[in-house]
Each structure stands twice: as C-alpha cells, then as structure tokens.
Amino acid sequence: MRTPSVRPFLTTRGLVPENQESPVHYIIPETTEPRFHFRRNHFAYPSLSPLSYWLQVEGHVENPLWFSLQDLLALPAVTVPALLECAGNKRGLFEPVVYGEQWEKGAISQGYWTGVPLKTLLEKAVVKEGAAEVVTIGMDRGKRPGTEGSVSFARSLPLEKATHEDTIIAYAYNDRSIPFKMGYPLRLIVPGWYAMASVKWLRQIRVSEESFTGPYQTEDYVCYPDKDSDEGAFPVTEIKLDSSILQPMQRAILPSGSHTIHGIAWSSTGVIARIYVSTDGGTSWSEAELDPEQVGYHWTRWSMEWLDVQPGNYTILSKAVDASGAAQPETAFWNRNGYGYNAVDRVEVKVEE
C-alpha cells in the first residue's frame, strides 16, 4: 500500500477574522506557497467583483485618475522578492506577556511580487507641491473596538517611501494572480516594512498634505513603551533584524550523535552578514554557514553542524548580524502592544541515548 504523504498545516490563531500562522519550520523552498502563507486580518473578508473593479488615485494631485485592472496590466511591470512579516510576529515570546494574537514564529512568509511601482501611478496623477503622505485604503472594513461605526483598514506612507522604486501595487504572487485571501486583485507591497503597511484589497490611493490619523496608523501599530501611559510612543515601520531557529524545534527530544541546526535570518534590507549559534546557552558561539544567494528582501537561510552531541539538556541560541554591523539584541524591546520582537532566538532541547 502506498504511504500517504504528510503535509504541514497552518496554525489557527483566530477564525473571524481569520488569523493563521505559517508552518515556517517545515517550509523548505525559497518561496512560500499561498496555502502556507500566514494570514492576518482585522475584519471579515470583503466582497468584491473584479469585473467592476477600479483603483482610484486622488487627493493632492493635479490629475485624479481611475485605473482598471487592464490599465495596470498594460503598464511596465517589476518583480520584487520580498518577505512579509506581521508586526506581532513572536508576540507570544514577550516577557512580561502582552495581549493580542499570541503569534509564535510563523507570522512571516515570502515570495515574488509582480506589479506596477506606486511611483508610476503617482507620476501619472502628478503630485502637487506640499504633499506629505500617501494614504492607501483597502476594501476590508468593519467594527473596530473603541471606534464608533465601521472603519476601513487604511494606512499611510511618507512620500519618500511611497515613491521608492520597490514599493509596488502588486497583482501577482509567484507568477500567478494574488490569491483572494492574500489581497486579490491588488495589494500594496512595501518591502522592508512590517506587513501592516502592505494594504490588501486596495481600492483607493489618496495623496495628502497632512499626517493621516486613522486608527490603524495612530492607535494600532504604535509602540507604547510604558505599560500605563502613552509616553514615548512611536510608530511601527521598518522590520527589525531577526533570526529564527527552525530545526530542532522547541522542547524537542533528540537522539545522541550529530545534528544539523538550521534557520532563517532577515532584516529591513535583507542583507545578513553573519549568523552566530551557541549550543551552551551563550557561553560560546560559532559562526554558522549562510546560504550564499541572498535574494532581494527575502530571508537568508543558515545552518550549522552540531557534531557528536552527548545526552543532556541544551539551550541553542542564534544571533544575526547585518551588513552595517548591527546585531540582534539579547532582549527584545518590550512594548504593550507586543510589536517587533527580535531578541536572540532560543530553543531548548533534550538529547537522549
């Protein structure tokens, strides 16, 4: 009898709205298949009709425009290798614990995004002098706790980031149309920033002279360092330098002998210079081997051979260093919303005879 294949599954953090964690420990290919891509939503999925779909560009521009999907497909396209990481990735590791979806290591995925640079659309609309931000609004909307009525998911980017050559209006993922649950028909992709900036189901682009004050800009996706006040608050923007040990997994029981420790590392630029691994809780460190091909904003794979391991309890750590010389911190910057956890990664294992 043929042995059935075994496949990983998403880890459910919520159903309405749907929030699912990627089985990142078991994903070997460079790109994440759509069925394994993490899902982060604030509302139920929107209703849409691609046959009557138009993208509006308006606000502080000389020439307000509407673009159909066919219009966008006719424009020169670019492909950007980029990972998306939820700002709350690893929230469940914070100490003291914080409220919110208790993501572990799987609120991160990556692939190749194809579309039109946002800059191209803004140039066609002719941005007026004095513009400060570009607001992007999705079709998903609903009731947000603490806010009266329903609101759309909307975010803004400073003009400089909105006009960066790698900030795109994507319509394809890994050479196919973006799946509905990932933002079909159009999704903003902002490489190097946490994924809340990459607005899904995009319906409107608005150029503004003023700072946007929507709740997902000035209340959520803001770091509050103080437990009881808003003092010192600052917005969530660029992805922090980080690494994850993917194998062995936390609390694994291993046989004695030799093993391969492997994982991933990433940053806002994608450029990882070195990875250090400790198998004795940080007393000593060894440099891991990096995958020689670093692609765009994708993560970098790394591995280290752990030889002749004897029975006992072990704490394995990984620490990334980027091209600027910056290193992962020993302790994550605590904030009450639980964003941007990036402490040196830690896995505890037991080795038996």
Characterization of this structure:
- The chain is mainly beta and 353 residues long.
- It has two domains: 225 residues, Sulfite Oxidase, Chain A, domain 2 (Alpha-Beta Complex); 111 residues, Sandwich (Immunoglobulin-like), CATH 2.60.40.
- Helices cover 6% and strands 40% of the residues.
- It contains four helices and 24 strands.
- It has a five-stranded mixed β-sheet with strand order 5-4-13-8-9. Strands 6, 7, 10, 11 and 12 form a five-stranded antiparallel β-sheet that branches.
- The longest helix has 8 residues.
- The mean pLDDT is 96.
Quick structural overview:
This protein is mainly beta. It is 6% helix and 40% strand.
Fill in the CATH topology of the largest domain: Sulfite Oxidase, Chain A, domain 2
**Rough outline:** globular
- Provide the β-strand percentage band: 35-45%
CATH level-two architecture of the largest domain: Alpha-Beta Complex
Tell me about the largest β-sheet: 5 strands, mixed
CATH C-level category of the largest domain: Alpha Beta
Strand order of the largest sheet: 5-4-13-8-9
Q: In total, how many domains does the architecture comprise?
A: 2
| Tally of strands | 24
Mean pLDDT: 96
Label the structural class.
mainly beta
SSE sequence, one letter per element? EEEEEHEEHEEHEEEEHEEEEEEEEEEE
Query: What share of the residues lie within helices?
Result: under 10%
Instruction: Spell out the CATH superfamily of the largest domain.
Output: Oxidoreductase, molybdopterin-binding domain
Q: Helix segment count? A: 4
Calculate the terminal CA-CA distance, rounded to whole Å: 33 Å
Weakly predicted, low-confidence segments? none
Cα-based radius of gyration, to the nearest Å: 21 Å
